[in-house]
TrEMBL record:
The keyword DNA repair applies. Gene3D superfamilies: Nucleic acid-binding proteins, P-loop containing nucleotide triphosphate hydrolases. This is ATP-dependent DNA helicase RecG. Its EC number is 5.6.2.4. GO terms for molecular function: 3'-5' DNA helicase activity; ATP binding; ATP hydrolysis activity; DNA binding. The lineage of its organism: Bacteria, Bacillati, Cyanobacteriota, Cyanophyceae, Synechococcales.
Length: 816
């Protein structure tokens, strides 16, 4: 409702112009939001909202005065509705005084000789058994334990009144004992029960505790319990609230009698946020908390790597305090502040590390690829032989690239452009720039299929430009390969196309100026080092159709330069995407028939090659047989999958591209880059098994020509999440939105794929939740790097960075 009210406010402020947002316009947003109304509205209120909704449907056509009054009415009704939904009168939560935690409680650090690098086994109270259990969690040194952050918190600090108790949450109440009764269970002589009837100003509740064991059922013990909780006493009760037929009740609560309503609680748990750690067999929660409590006081003497001024300007908590608070927060606010500080540090170190790496790279010059006077000929000529003009976005990105190329610092630029946005020609024009400046170029693709497709495209144009090019893949015959490598070394070959494996090969260039890497987010440190090892520091351009969400991009590259091709070539029609059940597969086949009759072509995509009974996947081979023999005996159906040889793959794609086959059954081999403009239908089997970004890529294989295109997602799983995921795809074709969703739903590791992940270890920070802190940390990292590139004035940070690097290397060594 708040979003709606905000939208109404903004619309009024802007003069009732039916504001256009990124996704929808104001009026359709309102209509949409009104559908999200609360379930249990009285009929009258519901009718009012429906009337409103009808009004807004026509909003776009209404004269100004009517718009004004409609917006006013909407605001009034929403306000009234909100009032009606508010609880009558909220009583403020009880207050509880806490004795401040461990440090102040007089627990001095148990030995002055402990420091961050002390083995945990030397901490007092940690025996060999506990030490070995801790080691199972990877916790060897004091430092490790301090950085072993809680997974979660039990929120006993959630102070509420009795009528505010919500099942499923943890809460604390402060109430008065009305009746106190301790008795042996009538049915089980080994069980005794303490029952307290408690009241506060909002209601009453019965709190029950069970004590199992003979010694608890003696009359003396029972009486002592009753005396412990006398009628009229004030008690604090903490615990998990569960639902019972008689209303909310505490399950096995913690209880303490307060000396007076204002007296502080003595318990170390009641009223607090209790950390919850990942545990291991044989190491209980209480034990781990004890050990943490024993070492935490140490951090108060640890230096803060952030300069005071910076800390103040960024409003960050001190590091020692943050470490203390994260393990024993004195309240929600302090917890959030400590988390923000620690997340900031993680991101800052990450960004500083990336910035330093970049700086080191830029210290090694790359060949400036400025054009000779009177140049421009080659690229100009290329643009004139293209059958189309570049889009505005293509022109802009090309200009950005060429400006980079003219500098002596090596370019590291990522071009993001949705599927079909025309990245290839931009790459080509860039390569031609390098070639015209007298250098060689390399174009690398992730698969042989794609490399060959690129090469075929080039072969249409390059001979006219008198540029020499060659294709080098795993299946290039040896004699040809030898010749080619020779031409490369002596500089006769100007452009080499191949798979990413180009770098692995003993390929030597004469004067490599530019490397373009297609369909990859990331040109890893390893690959770059490999080039450097060959004495090369070329300019680098990576291109991807799978946009990486900004947080991911920043964490991987720091400030990599990013260019966006944010415009599709003219005449493209949106792809109509729908989700259907397997039983409606026939609809897809009818669509295929219709389209083929119109002269178009179709893909049928499957997740796996061979029949796997266990997973009940319809395999490509089986589906190919069925389609070619039973479904489309009159059509030519091709088959493409990863087990085919390179030549066979090429033949399959060639036949499909030329129209010899009209239907291509394929695995995800077609995922990236394959470009057959006549394809206008794609049926994706077991769509739920693919990632969103991958489906978006797949779908990008259709809709590349002028014809209307269709994508059918077949989903047989009843999984709600799977449905929701696929619905994102049905709803939008915005690659960025899809990438964000993918990140949220599957996490960064999955999104990037292990192959190119190289993700940093983040203990606390989340790439989906902490985007804002990441941006702040990046800004600070930039300022610091600009002012003090060697971190001479920032010894603390330099130290932390070195420390982190050492740890990472340790870890890598351990893994090996
Ligand atoms: P992607 O960005 O997915 O790699 P491609 O470079 O394969 O896209 O281009 C998709 C299709 O659009 C190709 O057939 C290409 O020839 C065509 N194309 C590229 N740029 C333009 C343009 N400016 N106008 C019209 N068609 C274009
Ligand atoms: Mg491409």
């Amino acid at each position: 409702m708040r979003a709606l009210q905000q939208a109404l406010q903004v619309e009024a402020d802007r003069g009732f112009i039916d504001l256009k947002g990124r996704q929808t316009c104001f009026s359709s947003f309102v209509v949409q939001q009104l559908q999200l109304r609360p379930q249990d509205l009285p009929a009258e209120a519901l009718q009012r909202l429906l009337d409103l909704s009808a009004g807004f449907q026509a909003y776009g056509e209404l004269p100004l005065a009517r718009r004004q009054s409609l917006v006013r009415t909407a605001r009034e009704r929403l306000h009234a509705l909100r009032q009606a939904q508010q609880p009558v009168l909220a009583v403020a939560p009880p207050r509880l005084r806490l004795v401040s935690n461990s440090t102040a409680a007089g627990k001095a650090p148990n030995s002055a000789s402990l420091n961050a690098d002390t083995p945990l086994s030397e901490v007092r109270g940690v025996g060999p058994k506990t030490a070995s259990r801790l080691a199972q969690l990877g916790l060897l040194l004091v430092r490790d334990l301090v950085h072993y952050y809680p997974r979660d918190y039990l929120d006993y600090a959630n102070l509420v009144r009795i009528n505010g108790l919500k099942p499923g949450t943890t809460a604390t109440i402060v109430a008065t004992v009305r009746r106190s009764h301790a008795f042996a269970s009538p049915r089980n002589p080994n069980l005794s029960i303490l029952e307290l009837h408690l009241i506060d100003c909002t209601g009453r509740i019965k709190v029950t505790r069970f004590f199992a064991g003979q010694r608890f059922s003696s009359p003396g013990w029972l009486q002592s319990q009753q005396r412990l909780f006398p009628v009229g006493a004030t008690v604090a009760v903490s615990g998990l609230v569960k639902e019972t037929p008689y209303g909310p009740a505490f399950q096995d609560p913690l209880m303490e009698v307060l000396e007076s309503p204002q007296a502080p609680v003595r318990s170390e748990t009641i009223g607090r946020l209790l950390p919850v750690y990942g545990l291991t067999e044989g190491l209980g929660a209480d034990r781990l908390r004890q050990v943490v409590e024993a070492v935490i006081p140490l951090v108060s003497s640890w230096p803060d790597p952030l300069p005071e001024a910076l800390r103040r300007s960024q409003k960050l908590m001190g590091r020692s305090e943050a470490l203390t608070q994260i393990h024993g927060p004195s309240g929600q606010e302090q917890l959030q502040a400590s988390r923000r500080r620690l997340v900031f540090d993680e991101f800052l170190l990450l960004q500083l590390g990336l910035a330093q790496r970049r700086r080191q790279l830029s210290l090694r010059p790359a060949p400036p690829l400025a054009l000779p006077p009177g140049g421009e000929g080659l690229v100009q000529k290329f643009l004139t032989i293209l059958p189309f003009g570049l889009t505005g976005a293509q022109q802009r990105v090309l200009a950005e690239i060429r400006a980079d190329l003219a500098r002596p610092q090596p370019m590291a630029r990522l071009v993001q452009g949705d599927v079909g946005s025309g990245k290839t020609v931009v790459a080509l024009a860039s390569l031609l720039t390098a070639i015209e400046a007298g250098c060689q170029g390399a174009l690398m693709a992730p698969t042989e299929v794609l490399a060959e497709q690129h090469y075929r495209k080039l072969a249409e144009w390059l001979p006219q430009l008198h540029v020499t090019s060659a294709l080098l893949t795993g299946s290039t015959p040896a004699p040809r390969r030898r010749q080619l490598l020779q031409d490369l070394v002596n500089g006769q070959l100007q452009l080499l196309v191949g798979t990413h494996a180009l770098l692995e090969d003993p390929v030597q260039f004469d004067r490599l100026g530019l490397v373009v890497v297609d369909e990859q987010h990331r040109f890893g440190v390893r690959q770059r080092n490999r080039l450097l090892a060959k004495g090369l520091q070329p300019h680098l351009l990576t291109m991807t159709a799978t946009p990486i969400p900004r947080t991911l991009a920043l964490s991987l590259h720091g400030d990599l330069d990013v260019s966006q091709i944010d415009e599709l070539p003219p005449g493209r029609q949106p792809i109509r995407t729908s989700m259907v059940k397997g039983s409606q597969r026939q609809r897809g086949y009818e669509l295929i028939r219709e389209q083929v009759a119109l002269g178009q072509r179709a893909y049928v995509v499957l997740p796996l090659v061979e029949e796997s009974e266990k997973l009940e996947l319809r395999s490509a081979v089986e589906v190919h047989r069925q389609l070619s023999e039973e479904e489309f005996p009159d059509l030519a159906v091709g088959l493409l999958h990863g087990r085919l040889s390179s030549a066979e793959k090429q033949a399959a794609i060639g036949a499909f591209a030329s129209g010899q086959t009209q239907v291509l059954v394929s695995t995800t081999v077609v995922e990236v880059g394959v470009d057959v403009p006549e394809a206008s239908v794609m049926v994706i089997e077991h769509a739920e098994r693919f990632g969103l970004a991958q489906l978006h890529q797949l779908r990008g294989r259709v809709g590349r020509g002028a014809a209307a295109s269709y994508c059918l997602l077949i989903n047989d799983s009843s999984n709600v999440l799977a449905r929701q995921r696929l619905e994102v795809l049905v709803r939008t074709s915005d690659g960025f939105e899809i990438a964000e969703m993918d990140l949220r739903l599957r996490g960064p590791g999955q999104v990037l794929g292990t192959r190119q992940s190289g993700l940093p270890d983040l203990a606390l920070a989340s790439l989906t939740e902490d985007g804002t802190v990441l941006e702040e940390a990046r800004d600070v990292a930039r300022q610091i790097t600009a002012a003090d590139p060697e971190l001479r004035q920032h010894q603390g940070l330099a130290h932390a960075l070195a420390e982190q690097r050492r740890r990472q290397m340790d870890q890598a060594a351990r893994l090996n």
